[in-house]
Amino acid sequence: MTKYFKRNWTETRGDEFDSWGTCIYYFEVDDEGIPTKQMELYENGNRLRYHIERIFDDYGKLGDQPLDLKEFGKYKIGKDEFESEWQ
């Protein structure tokens, strides 16, 4: 069953794009917690989207490790909220 999460990240990237600021991560994951879609919304307005047809670019990549579904339980959101931001 597909699950959706939204998590604020309070640290900056720590790379050449550090000036983008902190971000909010959105994840769509499969039953095992593997991200199938991932979005990063940065303080400066940059929005990165990754999915099976766009796994990486010059700024980042789709996560390839499962999320800890127990840990992420408190960050669960509905599909509608995820899709609203994805669009």
Would you mind describing this structure in some detail?
The protein has 87 residues and is an alpha+beta fold. The chain has one domain (3-86). It has helices at 69-72, 79-86, and strands spanning 3-9, 23-29, 35-42, 47-51, 76-77. The protein has a five-stranded antiparallel beta sheet with strand order 4-3-2-1-5. A hairpin with a 5-residue loop joins strand 2 and strand 3. The chain is globular, with a radius of gyration of 13 Å. The two termini are 21 Å apart.
Net shape: globular
Q: Major beta sheet, specifics?
A: 5 strands, antiparallel
List the uncertain runs: none
Number of domains: 1
What is the strand tally?
5
Helix content: 10-25%
Major beta sheet, strand line-up: 4-3-2-1-5
How much of the polypeptide forms β-strand, as a percent range? 25-35%
Rg (C-alpha, Å) = 13 Å
SSE topology string:
EEEEHEH
Structural class: alpha+beta
Mean pLDDT: 97
Measured between the Cα atoms of the first and last residue, the distance is 21 Å
Q: What is the number of helical segments per DSSP (H or I, 4+ residues)?
A: 2
List the SSEs and their pairings.
Layout: E1 3-9, E2 23-29, E3 35-42, E4 47-51, H1 69-72, E5 76-77, H2 79-86
Antiparallel strand pairs: 1-2, 1-5, 2-3, 3-4
Keywords:
87 residues; alpha+beta; 2 helices
